[in-house]
Write a structure and sequence with these properties.
Blueprint (H helix, E strand, L loop, with lengths): L9 H22 L4 H10 L3 H8 L1 H8 L7 H8 L3 H11 L4 H9 L12 H16 L9 H11 L3 H15 L1
Helix pairs in contact: 1-2, 1-8, 1-10, 2-7, 2-8, 3-4, 3-6, 4-5, 6-7, 7-8, 8-9
Length: about 170
C-alpha cells in the first residue's frame, strides 16, 4: 500500500473511533443488547468511509473537512459527490461484512432509524457516536440536548444509567 500523507489529524479520528466502540459496548451491556462485542466492532467501523475518501483524494478530503476533522457530510457531498457514509457502506459490503454492520454505517447519523425496537445496533452506535462526539474535539456535529435525550430514551438508558455511562466509557477507553 502506498503511504498517503494527510494534514488530517488521524489521532483525533482514532480517539473518536475507540471511544465510540467502547461506548457502543458499554451501552450494549447496559441495555441488554445480546452481542456487546458486535456493538464494539460496529462502533469501531461506523466511520470507515473517511479512510477511503482520504486515500482517494487526500488534499480534497483535508479541504472538505476544514479545521474540524470530521462530521461534515454535506461538504463531503459537495466535494466528492458522496459522503463518508455512502463510501463506508460500499466498503463494508465489498468486504462482505454482516448486513447489521452495514446498516450501522448507513444510519448512524439518522435519529429516525436509531430505534432500538427495530434497529437495536444502529440505536446503540448512534448514541455512542453522539457521546463520543461530545467528548472529543474532532467532530463538528455535537447533538443538541433534545437529540441526545431522544437517543438515550430510544436505547432505554435511564438517567441514572446515563450518569454512570460517560465515566464508564472513559475507563474503557483508557
Amino acid at each position: 500500500l502506498k503511504k498517503v500523507k494527510s494534514p488530517v489529524n488521524w489521532e483525533e479520528f482514532w480517539h473518536h473511533a475507540i471511544t465510540c466502540a467502547a461506548g457502543s459496548q458499554a451501552i450494549a451491556d447496559r441495555c441488554g443488547y445480546p452481542e456487546p462485542e458486535e456493538a464494539f466492532i460496529a462502533g469501531l467501523l461506523h466511520d470507515v468511509g473517511y479512510f477511503v475518501l482520504n486515500m482517494l483524494a487526500p488534499d480534497e478530503f483535508a479541504a472538505s473537512v476544514g479545521r474540524q476533522v470530521f462530521g461534515r457530510p454535506e461538504r463531503e457531498q459537495e466535494t466528492f459527490g458522496s459522503s463518508h457514509v455512502e463510501i463506508g457502506i460500499m466498503l463494508l459490503e465489498f468486504w462482505k461484512l454482516p448486513s447489521q454492520l452495514c446498516r450501522v454505517a448507513r444510519f448512524h447519523h439518522s435519529l429516525k432509524h436509531a430505534d432500538y425496537g427495530k434497529e437495536p445496533l444502529v440505536a446503540v452506535v448512534a448514541l455512542a457516536d453522539t457521546l463520543a462526539g461530545v467528548t472529543g474535539s474532532a467532530y463538528v456535529e455535537v447533538a443538541d440536548k433534545d437529540n441526545l435525550l431522544a437517543l438515550t430514551e430510544k436505547v432505554g438508558i435511564s438517567m441514572a444509567d446515563y450518569g454512570a455511562l460517560l465515566p464508564e466509557i472513559g475507563r474503557r477507553v483508557k
